[in-house]
Design a protein that fits this description.
419 residues, mainly beta
């Protein structure tokens, strides 16, 4: 199977090197094609012929990593330096870039594998201040094994953009700006992160632990998404064929939306919230509140007010179940048979930040239409088209909440290549 997508990172920077300009402005475009492979190895392991490159004196730098194969680990420290440890074949370049005072956006194109499709959308970046920025670009050569790569960035790095095409991606303690990360088959694990996050996987699991985020967007084709002990101001998590669990988390005022097309959605809160849940198919809404809640609705549509009410949290699925609860499922002494599915997903997500080697990343549900492993779909990229949320409007529409479209009033993204 080939998972094919094109991602264009368009930033209005002037580039002294190389001197590529279009209409008085230089545009940096990242165009990548994903090839799915099995990913294995140690998250912090170093290749046998590891070399370390360090760039000193970098304040709020921009870091971009594009790896064809191999695992990537992102760490932080309190030094104004970027350190890259990996194979000698890596291309590691330092550049000076200038950000004009305009809002920057990344086009997230349509991605699909067999019957599963992620619609295109745009993600706004506001952490890059006007002025000159140092940038470090790390790339592997096509068809050249890169091995594990460890990149250590300053705590105040303005933007970290990582594409781990054929491996796993682990991010630890990054809170200073905006993180944008992609994997295809491999897992994507975020631990103790903050700020603004965009995270996407194809078939791999997406795991977030102990995060406090201002804005978090997570989406997968068939990988499960697991959040534990997270505090969210604005969060939107969607999957086509994977399930989603948000356990022992809290919510601040802002958008909170969880939706799966063919998977389950389980939300556990430790803060006061107002739940709205909808199941379109034959599934149902399950509730279990040890500290009590005001519940109403039917088997397929339900509302629950926890702790007197608070931010509105919506959960929806077309063919799965929705589970609403308080606290954590891990400490529940008695859980009925119906609750074993979200509990199993939590248990399977444990240890992604600690254990080495490959993990069983297959979803816990049987899909009505399984992914075809040998399909090489044609990429569909529409830089100027308004993103379509064909799979994403269900929850807000069905439970009476206003659907928030995140593709309006954003700057138009162009696609110009600097050779």
């Amino acid at each position: 199977m080939r998972y094919h997508a094109e991602v264009r990172l368009t930033l209005p920077w002037s580039l002294p090197d190389p001197p590529c300009r279009t209409g008085g402005r230089a545009t940096l475009v990242l165009v990548v094609t994903l090839a799915v492979t099995l990913a294995a190895g140690l998250a912090f392991a170093l290749p046998a012929r590891a070399e370390t490159t360090t760039f000193e004196g970098l304040s709020a730098p921009i870091v971009r990593v594009n790896l064809h194969a191999g695992d990537v680990t992102i760490r932080t420290w309190d030094r104004q330096s970027v350190e890259v440890t990996g194979e000698a074949t890596l291309s590691i370049v330092h550049r000076t870039m200038h950000q004009v005072p305009e809002q920057t956006a990344i086009l997230i194109p349509q991605a699909h594998s067999g019957p599963a499709t992620l619609a295109p959308e745009t993600f706004v970046i506001s952490s890059i201040a006007p002025g000159t920025h140092d940038a470090v670009v790390v790339k592997s050569m096509p068809d050249t094994p890169a091995g594990p790569v460890v990149v250590t960035v300053p705590n105040d790095a303005a933007l970290v953009f990582v594409f781990a095409r054929g491996g796993n991606l682990d991010v630890h303690d990054y809170r200073g700006g905006t993180f944008v990360g992609f994997t295809s088959r491999g897992r994507l694990a975020l631990q103790h992160v903050g700020g603004t996050i965009f995270a996407q996987t194809g078939r791999g699991a997406l795991v977030v632990d102990d995060a406090t985020t201002d804005r978090l967007r997570a989406r997968t084709l068939s990988g499960n998404i697991a959040f534990e002990r997270c505090r969210s101001h604005q969060i939107e998590a969607t999957s086509i064929d994977g399930s989603i669990v948000y356990d022992e988390g809290s919510f601040e005022p802002g958008l909170a939306r969880f939706e799966s097309t063919h998977g389950d959605v389980a939300i556990g809160t430790i803060s006061a919230v107002e739940f709205g849940a909808h199941v379109a198919g034959e599934g149902r809404v399950f509730t279990q509140f040890e500290r009590g809640a005001r519940t109403s609705g039917t088997q397929g549509d339900a509302n629950a007010v926890v702790g007197g009410g608070g931010p509105v949290v919506t959960a929806a699925t077309q063919t799965g179940n929705v589970y609403l609860f308080d606290g954590t499922l891990r400490t529940r002494e008695r859980l009925g048979a119906a609750w074993q599915r979200p509990l199993a997903m939590l248990q399977r997500s444990s240890g992604f930040h600690r254990e080495s080697g490959p993990h069983d990343l297959s979803p816990i549900r049987a899909f009505p239409q399984p992914l075809v492993p040998d399909v090489d779909p044609t990429p569909v990229v529409a830089p100027h088209a308004r993103p379509r949320h064909r799979h994403d409007a269900l929850s807000a529409h069905r439970i009476g909440q206003q659907h928030v479209s995140h593709d309006r009033h954003w700057p138009e993204v162009t696609a110009e290549t600097c050779a």
